[in-house]
Amino acid sequence: MSACDDAGIAVTDVDGFAFYRGGVDAGLLAQTLGIDEITFCASLSGAGGGSAGSLGLAAAAIQSGMATVVACPMAFQQIGTRFGAAYARDGVGGGPLYNHASPEDDYLRPADLVAPAQMFGLIAQRHMHKYGTTREAFAEVAITFRDNARKTPGSLMTKPMTREDYFNARMISDPICLFDCCVESEGAGVVLVTSLERARDLRKTPVEVLASVHGGEGDWGQGIMWLNMPDEIFSSSGHRGIAKRMYERAGIKPADVDVAMIYDHFAPMVLLQLEDYGFCAIGESNDFVLDGNIRMDGAIPVNPNGGQLSNGYLIGFSLVTEAVRQVRGEGANQVAGAEVALVTGGPAALPVSGSLLRAVR
Amino acid sequence: METMERLAQLGLYPTKDTLPFWEALLAGSLVACQCANCGRFRQPPSGFCPGCQHSAVRWQRLDGAGTIYSFTWARHGFTPDLRDRVPYAIALVELDDAPGIRLIANILDAEEGQVAIGAKVVADHRNAADARIDFVLSGTADA
Ligand SMILES: [Zn+2]
After folding, report:
1. Does residue A313 have an active-site annotation?
2. Which residue ranges form the domains of chain A, and what is each CATH number?
């Protein structure tokens, strides 16, 4: 409702829904909101990898004429075993990503590999070995985002974090420590997508979807649940293919991006996405980050709202809504003059996703 | 059928494509799924080669020697039954006899600092009856 008020669109004008990670029940939404008829209803497969991609489904529906106003809602409530133990086989019916009937998942169990933190630990450790990446860079990510969260009302983690605090934090799964992990939470968000023509007449500055892509390379496949990716892309975020396609479709370069909302379930994965999205060369994110480039006054400010590490974890969607705020100039911790925003989906099993948004003024 | 029941007790639900791996593991050995057409190994085992799109499979028996590709020390007990187990070492092990694939394994009997990328390991079957995929160190990491 508040998204409709914000845009100046009647909630009954919504005729489409686009989701990711299972989404929200479209029938329930339609009956609850009193919508005459739904003409488009689609979801990206996979999990958090698609968080930046439901916008692309919505834009495709608008462009093809299948719908006129598409809502991309995300609501997240945690019941039973938490996401931290997503692949565990015990708990209430197993973790949220535990798949009882998957013969592939069987290969995670004989080594008690149950947690995303452990899986991303394996990827981060390889990156450190291959490129000399250090925990100092992970600390820079965590501390920068904490500083940003402190300037953003509603953030869950607002205690100042020093370098000493970071290195004193207990280790979860080497090299990932407590402060490298996102803050699990609950919440909801929604973005409305319509034609640019219609958006121009609405209340707020329209934001154009320059490109929104999803998918990814077969060599990445199930990613963290597979761990048999070829060495060339093992210590990556799995986003290289879609990043290239996204920039091509948008017709812009990494240097044209003013603010980046980067999926930060684990701090090391921010570094790997900085590489895959072309802000620095492959293997050079350690120095890039330590040079201060992701800070508010750096070359590419990242997650000015504090991201999922310190603001809150909505499986990526709070990054999407903040990207919209930033290009409209409405961020609580605003990047000065931001016109173009990148928002990425989770480094996860395919599909992964990425979007570029630009304010139309 | 007994094998399937035993595996189900362990929370494992193989298909015809993965069963030979688990049967071998329970019997105290490792095998890898290899394309009978192009020779490419694949893990997990499946009925289709991503390299040449053929479906014929041969099972390569492995001598168990391998190298650590990456590792992590699990220190947080994410579930009640793991709280007594931490810390334990999880590693991705590349196998000498099956280039191109990795097994997700535990490294047993290792001290902190000994588990390293590049360290030589060998399969250990003391927990074979529980279908565990375990290795122990057999040398030190190459510099
Ligand atoms: Zn083949």
Report:
1. yes
2. 2-78+183-359 (3.40.47.10)
